[in-house]
Amino acid sequence: MKIGIFSTSKIATDQRIQKVSNTLSANGYSVTIYCRKHNKIGYKSENIKIKFINTIFDNGPLFYLQYNIQIFFKILFSRFDIIYCNDLDTLTGCALGSAMRNKKLIYDSHELFTEVPELVNRSLIKFIWRIQEKVFIRKANAIITVSDGVASELTRRYKVKEVNVIRNLPVIRETEVFKDKQPTIIYQGSLNVGRGIELAIEMMKHLPCYKLLIVGTGDIEIQLRKQMLESNLYDRVQFLGQLPPHELRLLTPTAWLGLSLEEDLGLNYRYALPNKLFDYIAAQVPVLVSDLPEMRKVVEKYKVGIVAKSRKPAELANQIGDFFDDKQEYESALKNIKSAVKDLNWQNEESKLIEVVKRVAAS
Predict the structure, then answer these.
(1) Could you tell me how far CA 337 lies from the centroid of its own chain?
(2) In sequence order, what are the residues at sequence separation of 6 or more whose Cβ sits closer than 8 angstroms to the Cβ of residue 297?
């Protein structure tokens, strides 16, 4: 059975698509991925075909229009049995193409796309995306998302019967942990509005013996670098850019604490279960997370770190200092992480994906 996966992301750095495609391929499906090309980081797979969609525009309405038109024609002239749509920004092309060819459609909503911070104050653009989702989500034979909160919201909004939760957990690997001698805090992920990175940099003023590693790229990177320089933190805040997964897996375990300090800027962040949260845990790094329901639930259930009590830099710095100073609490978190990894891994989660695909194939 042939499955076409469509995404606007770049396969080299999108670990969810890598995991989904590898799992499907390992279970006997023929997989072809259509995505954007990463100019700096390559990705190869022996069992998966990867094809790139090129557009004149890099972003904005004309980019999405052209991208979805290309998706539509790719499906129209293909022989896929199942169309696997990654997120709302490819749903229109996937839904129209699958309907035209009478193919099965799976919609994998990686987030509440219409509630991302970039759309909070753009009511017209947000309305257009929401109309697209409302119209085309019902065309899907199965809907997948990443957290219970997002699943509940999609069910409430669109009155769909079932939304399957498949968390974006990392593949479990043997991890050798060599902590940096200097207390090290890490943030990895997109450098975008609402991720709490500005707060993390400001917090470093109150943690003179610590260093902060920032891994990733994004819209506010220049602004963040300027903040770091103006705060005279160039010797303790390091921007490492976007790293390929294999390099990140070597770097992350050296940190003492991983940050996921998303702001409550809408339902998308409120119900988020960021990839980095589980990547930290997989690397045996305790976490500091925002007091938001989905993240708090993970930290409190597995006792793998701390939940932020404040978003004031000095108070947050004191909370981190207290966490490290309490040797018993920190060692307990490290011990609990080893147990959590046995549960929070893709090998446990992927069976849900195969079950959904089999159900769609048989329908």
Answers:
(1) 20
(2) none
Strand partners, 170: none
Q: For position 291, what pLDDT does the model report?
A: 95
Residue 98 to residue 108: CA distance in whole angstroms: 15
Q: Are strands 257-260 and 287-289 parallel, antiparallel or unpaired?
A: parallel
182 phi and psi angles, rounded to 5 deg: -85, 135
Q: 327-341 vs 275-282: helix axis angle to the nearest 10? A: 100
Looking at 4-122, list the stretches that DSSP marks H as alpha helix, in order from N- to C-terminal side.
15-26, 61-76, 91-101
For 125, the 3-state DSSP assignment is helix
**Per-residue pLDDT tens over the stretch 20-44:** 999 999 999 999 999 988 766 667 7
User: Tokens representing 162?
Assistant: 């079932």
Distance of CA 96 to the CA centre of its chain: 26
pLDDT at 40: 61
**Helix (H/G/I), strand (E/B), else coil: 253:** helix
**Which of 140-154, 172-186, 264-278, 341-355 is the least confident region?**
172-186
- The whole-number average pLDDT for the span 221-231 is 96
Of 246, 225, 218, 239, which is closest to residue 41 (Cα–Cα)?
246
318 and 206 Cβ atoms separated by less than 8 Å: yes
CA distance 349 to 292: 23
Q: What is the pTM of this model?
A: 0.87
> Six-digit token pair at 167?
């968390």
SS3 21: helix
**Among 133, 140, 139, 164, which Cα is nearest to 151's?**
164
Give CA–CA dist 320/338, Å, rounded: 21
Structure tokens at 122: 């753009």
Domains in the chain and their CATH numbers?
Answer: 2-168+346-362 (3.40.50.2000), 184-341 (3.40.50.2000)
pLDDT at residue 10 is higher than 90: no
For 48-84, write each residue's pLDDT tens digit.
Answer: 999 999 889 888 899 999 999 999 999 999 999 999 9
Q: What is 311-349 written as a DSSP string?
A: -SHHHHHHHHHHHHH-HHHHHHHHHHHHHHHTTSSHHHH
Whole-angstrom CA distances from 93 to 2, 64, 89 are 18, 10, 9
